[in-house]
Design goal:
By secondary structure, the protein is an alpha/beta fold. Helix content is 21%, strand content 31%. It folds into three domains: 3-121 and 259-323, FAD/NAD(P)-binding domain; 124-256, FAD/NAD(P)-binding domain (3-Layer(bba) Sandwich), CATH 3.50.50.60; 334-415, Immunoglobulin-like (Sandwich). α1 (15-26) packs parallel to α8 and α4 (141-151) packs across α5. The model has no long low-confidence stretch (mean pLDDT 93).
């Protein structure tokens, strides 16, 4: 393999990396190379054996492995090159890339463009700083999912789940089906952190207790976790002393959020958005470093894999077009700013010269609101939740009149009839 002649390097082979590589190849890139540190393509799709994948992208209800398999077969059909069990260790601002594996040893190359598709990682107990001992039996929900679905091990029989992210909800159901007793799902917020469908199908349908506005305040046990103390929290998320109760368990799973994996992005000098934890990108998914693009959960955490694939296809398309010429034409810049009750927006910068889809998250749960994009778009929404992303598509005709007249566009979510 003559690595010096690679047109596009894709870092990661999850749903984002595979979609980006396929689209880049279809756009005319001659040599596309995927770097994957695991032993197979697909990222975490192979351990997500539940259904709910592909409802929008394929119009079919698929499991994770089924969804991933369709992309893997396309990669093989298109002749996209893959380096498995290969760790990318460095990317420089001028797109010099270093990687290593046990076959070729150190690998160095400078592709014409790069797509970042490293996905995200789970937040751990250390980041939560829960008081107590450090016994065995505490896992992130994703680790437990791999143990059960891939390795064939049950992590425990009496389980408490802290946090209500989608993986935690799905593992509550999965462990129940395997004969374990899920004592409670404990969530510090007044609403579930995952999708409504997962709350209903995984908790309500299986009669699993859900304790909202509660948190774990103490972990008990020496060799193995024996119990946890939970307490109700006040409006400032502080435990209320008189509300403690002890739940006996031999396992605790953590489903307390995901963090975009951006160590390589930092090395490359890519500007990160503190609101999303991922790169600042434009509507072509180009980062602040020319020729480096990003897509999927490395940019911001998505609710649905279908949106991950679609967003990564944008990155793959423009990475291929960038590889065909040295620079892009300079585009007008319209910065999107979060206003009332808006937590994050992706992309953060647009040119206004094409139809553009915006992915928006709110800060707080609100009912009977109006979502406004400047003065060019307004939509009434019955309810908005931080756990459910809002997608808004703006047409070129809506955006074009703003080009050259303003350099920012404020997005807000307010009670119907109120103004910013």
């Amino acid at each position: 393999m003559r690595l010096s002649e690679i047109d596009i390097a894709v870092i990661g082979s999850g749903p984002a990396g595979m979609a980006a590589a396929i689209k880049a190849k279809e756009e005319g890139a001659e040599r596309v190379l995927i770097f994957e540190r695991q032993e197979q393509l697909g990222g975490l799709l192979h351990q997500c054996i539940h259904n709910g994948f592909g409802l929008f992208y394929f119009g079919q209800d698929l499991t994770g492995p089924e969804y991933g398999r369709r992309f893997v077969e396309k990669i093989k059909d298109l002749g996209i090159e893959v380096l498995l069990e290969t760790m990318v260790t460095h990317i420089s601002p001028d797109r010099e890339l270093m990687a290593i594996n046990k076959r070729e040893g150190p690998i160095g190359l400078k592709p014409k463009s790069i797509v970042l598709a490293m996905g995200c990682r789970e937040r751990t107990r250390g980041q939560l700083r829960i008081p107590g001992t450090r016994p065995a039996g505490i896992f992130t929900a994703g680790t437990a999912q791999r143990f059960v679905n891939v390795e064939g091990f049950i992590p425990g029989k009496r389980v408490v789940i802290l946090g209500s992210g989608d993986i935690g909800l799905i593992m509550a159901r999965r462990l129940t089906l395997e004969g374990a007793e899920v004592k409670a799902v404990v969530e510090i917020l007044p609403y579930v952190g995952g999708l409504i469908r997962n709350e209903v199908q995984c908790l309500h349908d299986f009669h699993i207790p859900l304790l909202l506005e509660h948190t774990v305040t103490q972990i008990h046990g020496e060799e193995r976790i024996e119990a946890v103390t939970i307490a109700k929290v006040d409006q400032d998320k502080n435990p209320i002393p008189s509300t403690e109760q002890i739940i006996e368990c031999d396992t605790m799973l953590l489903s307390v959020g995901l963090i975009p994996e951006n160590e390589l992005s930092k090395m490359a000098g890519v500007e990160l958005d503190p609101l999303t934890g991922g790169p600042v990108v434009d509507e072509q998914r180009e980062t602040s470093v020319a020729g480096i693009f990003a897509g999927g959960n490395v940019v911001h955490v998505h609710d649905l894999v279908d949106h991950v694939s679609w967003e990564a296809e944008i990155a793959g398309t423009w990475a291929a077009r960038y590889a065909k010429r040295e620079t892009f034409e300079k585009k007008p810049r319209l910065t999107l700013r979060p206003g009332r009750n808006i937590r994050s927006i992706v992309p953060q910068i647009i040119s206004g010269q094409d139809d553009t889809s915006l992915y928006i998250r709110v800060k707080e749960l609100k009912e009977g609101v109006q979502l406004k994009v400047g003065e060019i778009y307004s939509q009434k929404l019955r309810i908005v939740k931080p756990s459910e992303m809002i997608k808004v598509t703006l047409s070129k005709n809506q955006l074009e009149p703003l080009v050259g007249k303003t350099n920012e566009l404020i997005i807000r979510c307010e009670k119907a009839g109120k103004h910013e």
